[in-house]
Amino acid sequence: MARQSYQEQLTELREDVLYMSEVVMERLRMGLDALEQKDVELAEEVIEGDGEVNRMYLDLEQDCIDLLALQQPVASDLRFIAASFKIITDLERIGDLATNLGEYTIDAERDLFPDVDVQEMGTLTLQMIEDAMIAYDTEDVDFCYELADRDDDLDHFAERASEIVVRDLIERELESPDEVEYLLQDVSRLLLTIRDLERVGDHAVNIAARTLYMVENDDELIY
Amino acid sequence: MTNEQMTSSETESTDEHEHGREQQTAPTPGSGLTDDADGGGTRSETERTVLEARNLDVFYGDEQALRDVDIDIPENRVTAVIGPSGCGKSTFLRSINRMNDLVDTCRVDGKLAFDGKNVYDEDVDPVALRRKIGMVFQSPNPFPKSIRDNVAYGLEVQGIDDNVDEAVEQALKRAALWDEVKDQLDESGLELSGGQQQRLCIARAIATDPEVILMDEPASALDPVATSKIEDLIEDLAEEYTVVIVTHNMQQAARISDKTAVFLTGGELVEFGETNQIFENPDHDRVEDYITGKFG
């Protein structure tokens, strides 16, 4: 095969993007655990780890730019690099959202609403990222479409969870004026958590959409 | 150019020279393409075919260099022809203006029509044909004459002897060389740099008022700066001429062409399409493998 080192660089890019996704998923898992267990130490670890994700992002961005500038990729190679270039942005954003979970953990003074299963929602989103990255790695187009459908389920989950929180806010009998303050903090933090996890799902769909473009030159899922 | 012009080499007049461009707007007889009067169509729907090959085979002795080629090359656009060594891309270019006539063992079957007229018909004068379909080669080949005479030669063969200086200036301007040579028109064309010599050859080709300019690796012997100038010039030329360029440099094809034809081993035209489609999402796996460097 011609252009041996170029082919190796493409393989390396794919492996590096997959590695970045592993790191980001681990951060999200840690963020969810910190939130559930009110583990401030773990939360701080997630927040501090964001610098590493950002550096990975910048390195991979540079790798993509170098490949474009120096190798003039075309056809499926070009689409692979263009897709990877976009996917690392989604992964970096997921890293930021994991960091948010760490920050909510540190801010939280009381337990969250017991009726909202943040862990279950987190597990759904983690599974979506993992599957999106499998689709990217194996170029599985069916998986891409399936992920887009699963995002609708996640959105419904987020909607129902938000309703539970707001309904509880309306129906709750307050014991003291101080409680209003705490309650508002809890509610806004929980709504932000739900929104952030819902956005993680959106990023997973973006990854699937770029993968579909990469494999089939089809932009159907991009918007 | 009409078919009569192509078949009678001695009848060109200055009048035809001036009005020759307008004739190109007429639809090609039998091409099935007509001007889109409401202007609502895309360029690809309205473009006129200048060169049309059907079942074109070219043999050198027993060896087949082109195999059953079908292609419609549109007017006023740059068509790049790419493919690995020995794929027949230069043979294809040379079959357009019958340069292959000069090869004794060469045999051509099928049809290659220029403005609807098969250039291999017996009544076609290849010399007149080559005036309408000019050619620029890999190595610049100016005549060992002055810059002015190199260009004036193209006018001479057309029988134009009025306002020669003005016509020379026009041709040099169109070839983006005028500003660099206007003060040294009497110096030898061989004194120029490689890139300038190549533009001089383009000016010489333009001076015969061609409709099509064929280019065979026109920048492969030039440095990057001279190459950029030739590439800019090719894009400008496509406003007035139909350009067909053979290049082994795929990035060059991607940069400057509107359409790309990919020939692969065996003289087969595997894919022909819009350049961005070929380089972003080719239809054929063999083309994909070739342009990404997985084979060839």
3D architecture notes:
The complex is a heterodimer of chains A (223) and B (296). Chain A is mainly α and 223 residues long. Chain A has helices spanning 4-37, 40-71, 75-107, 118-138, 141-171, 177-216. In chain A, helix 1 (4-37) runs parallel beside helix 3 (75-107), helix 3 packs antiparallel against helix 6 (177-216) and helix 5 packs antiparallel against helix 6 (177-216). Chain B is an alpha/beta fold. Chain B has helices at residues 3-7, 14-19, 43-46, 89-96, 126-132, 147-156, 164-174, 178-181, 194-207, 224-237, 250-256, 275-280, 285-291; strands spanning 49-60, 63-74, 78-82, 106-114, 117-118, 133-136, 212-216, 242-246, 259-264, 268-274. In chain B, the strands form two sheets. Chain B has a six-stranded mixed β-sheet with strand order 6-7-8-3-9-10, sandwiched between helices. The model of chain B is unreliable at 8-42 (pLDDT under 50). Classes of the chains: A mainly alpha (223), B alpha/beta (296). Chain A binds chain B through residues 1-3, 6-7, 72-79, 217, and chain B through 250-251, 254, 279-282, 287-288, 291-296.
List keywords for this structure.
heterodimer; A: 223 residues; mainly alpha; 6 helices; elongated; B: 296 residues; alpha/beta; Rossmann fold; six-stranded mixed β-sheet; four-stranded antiparallel β-sheet
CATH fold descriptor of chain B? Rossmann fold
Mean pLDDT of chain B: 86
Question: Main beta sheet of chain A: strand number and arrangement?
Answer: none
CATH topology of chain A: Methane Monooxygenase Hydroxylase, Chain G, domain 1
The tally of strands of chain B reads 10
For the record, what CATH class of chain A applies? Answer: Mainly Alpha
The number of helical runs of chain B is 13
Please state roughly what percent of the residues of chain A sit in beta strands, choosing from under 5%, 5-15%, 15-25%, 25-35%, 35-45% or over 45%. Answer: under 5%
**How do the SSEs of chain B run, as a string of H and E?**
HHHEEEHEEHEHHHHEHEHEEHH
Under CATH, the homologous superfamily of chain B reads P-loop containing nucleotide triphosphate hydrolases
**Largest interface pair:** A-B, 14 and 15 residues
Q: By CATH's scheme, which homologous superfamily of chain A applies?
A: Phosphate transport system protein phou homolog 2, domain 2
Spatial ordering of strands, largest sheet of chain B: 6-7-8-3-9-10
Calculate Rg of chain A over CA atoms. Answer: 20 Å
Q: Based on the structure given, which CATH architecture of chain B is correct?
A: 3-Layer(aba) Sandwich
